[in-house]
Amino acid sequence: MSAPVVIFYDGVCGLCDRTVRFVLARDSARRFRFAALQSDYAAAALAAHGRDARDLDTVCVLDGERLHIKSDAVLAILERLGGVWRLASLARLLPRALRDLGYDWVVRNRYRWFGRFDQCALPPPELRDRFLSAAVEESAARRSTG
């Protein structure tokens, strides 16, 4: 089995929340794990790739040692979901700069269109193992109380 692909998302963004739920509903192979950009896990993982999670306003995908950002991250997610979603790879025919212009337009408007939360939403207990920051925090809590 290959290593899971980690999706780093804005935990207070309504569009990002919907994206996470979309992926969870379609990821029957459980390929993906998730971490909010606001988490300690994201800060450490992204720092290892020369990125500061506090400066990011984009979805990132860590696939092994490769970090995808912006439109490349979205395409990486859809391609790995498989099935009809693989057709999204046709968007790679467009220059990245053009794809990222569209991506940036959505990012600038996402809070207005999809809303914003005051804090990161907690995943339901049956899905917490898919959220790396939640799993790390729960493990630390168990160690401190055990």
Offer a quick outline of the entry:
With 146 residues, the protein is of the alpha+beta class. The protein has helices spanning 14-26, 40-47, 70-81, 96-114, 132-145, and strands at residues 5-9, 32-36, 60-63, 66-69.
Describe what you observe in this structure.
This protein has 146 residues and is an alpha+beta fold. It has one domain. It has helices at 14-26, 40-47, 70-81, 96-114, 132-145, and strands at residues 5-9, 32-36, 60-63, 66-69. A 4-stranded mixed sheet has the order 2-1-3-4. The chain is globular, with a radius of gyration of 15 Å. The N and C termini lie far apart (32 Å).
Describe the secondary-structure layout.
Blueprint: E1 5-9, H1 14-26, E2 32-36, H2 40-47, E3 60-63, E4 66-69, H3 70-81, H4 96-114, H5 132-145
Keywords:
single chain, 5 helices, alpha+beta, 45% helix
The stretches of 5 or more residues where confidence is low (pLDDT under 50) are 135-146
From the N-terminal CA to the C-terminal CA, the straight-line distance is: 32 Å
Structural class: alpha+beta
Strand order of the largest sheet: 2-1-3-4
The largest pleated sheet is described as:
4 strands, mixed
Order of helices and strands: EHEHEEHHH
As a percent range, the share of helical residues equals 40-55%
Compute the gyration radius: what is it? 15 Å
Strand residue percentage? 5-15%
Number of helices: 5
Number of strands: 4
List the domain count as a whole number.
1
Mean pLDDT: 86
Global shape? globular
